[in-house]
């Protein structure tokens, strides 16, 4: 598609959200994946991306230790070479510094497995169950320097069912993530930033 927005997708593991995003970017979609980048060379999503014909790269964060600036310099070099218009974090398990976020200001999206502003950070499903919530879900937001606090671009809700465990709730939320993230990405690629709510 001529003139399509270029999307780099950052992953750390199996890449199920990456696959959902990449599969959606076909036909008349206003964007195309230009790179899948992982912070773990063994991330299972890299092979899935290669099988889909998407360029891949990996930069192992572990040799950098606590030197996040040096790690992010490497990420920026790989990303800038791919020249993305948008960056989609899809299970990328590294906290990004304000310097990195500023370099791509307004262009980084993330999906988080809670109905933000509830439960930023980790263990979202456990916290929802412990709180006795009747609903859980996921949020796509613009990434800012404050963790999980950027403008909300979309939310998808699922019921919390009697007898739910962290695993059963996580699986239900993940199914919603695979619907919500592609829908929001398409809207953002078209220039639409008003929040989308599912269902």
UniProtKB/TrEMBL annotation:
Gene name of this polypeptide: purN
Positions that bind (6R)-10-formyltetrahydrofolate: 68, 110
Residues that span the membrane, as ranges: none
A Pfam family of this chain: Formyl_trans_N
Biological source species: Rhabdonatronobacter sediminivivens
SUPFAM superfamilies linked to this entry: Formyltransferase
Enzyme Commission number: 2.1.2.2
Functional note: Catalyzes the transfer of a formyl group from 10-formyltetrahydrofolate to 5-phospho-ribosyl-glycinamide (GAR), producing 5-phospho-ribosyl-N-formylglycinamide (FGAR) and tetrahydrofolate.
UniProt domain Formyl transferase N-terminal: residue ranges: 6-185
Active-site residues (renumbered): 112
Pathway: Purine metabolism; IMP biosynthesis via de novo pathway; N(2)-formyl-N(1)-(5-phospho-D-ribosyl)glycinamide from N(1)-(5-phospho-D-ribosyl)glycinamide (10-formyl THF route): step 1/1
Protein name, UniProt field: Phosphoribosylglycinamide formyltransferase
């Amino acid at each position: 598609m001529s003139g399509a927005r270029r999307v780099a997708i950052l992953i750390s593991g199996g890449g199920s959200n990456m696959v959902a995003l990449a599969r959606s970017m076909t036909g008349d979609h206003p964007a195309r994946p230009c790179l899948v980048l992982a912070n773990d060379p063994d991330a299972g999503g890299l092979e899935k991306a290669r099988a889909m014909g998407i360029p891949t790269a990996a930069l192992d964060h572990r040799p950098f230790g606590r030197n996040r600036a040096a790690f992010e310099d490497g990420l920026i070099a790989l990303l800038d070479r791919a020249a993305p218009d948008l960056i989609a974090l899809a299970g990328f398990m590294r906290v990004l510094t304000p310097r990195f976020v500023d370099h791509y200001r307004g262009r980084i999206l993330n999906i988080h497995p809670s109905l933000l502003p509830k439960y930023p950070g980790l263990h979202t499903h456990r916290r929802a169950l412990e709180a006795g919530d009747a609903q859980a879900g996921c949020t796509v937001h613009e990434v800012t320097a404050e963790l999980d606090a950027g403008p909300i671009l979309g939310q998808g809700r699922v019921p919390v069912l009697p007898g739910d465990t962290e695993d059963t709730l996580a699986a239900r939320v993940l199914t919603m993530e695979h619907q919500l993230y592609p829908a929001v990405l398409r809207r953002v690629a078209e220039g639409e930033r008003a929040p989308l709510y599912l269902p």
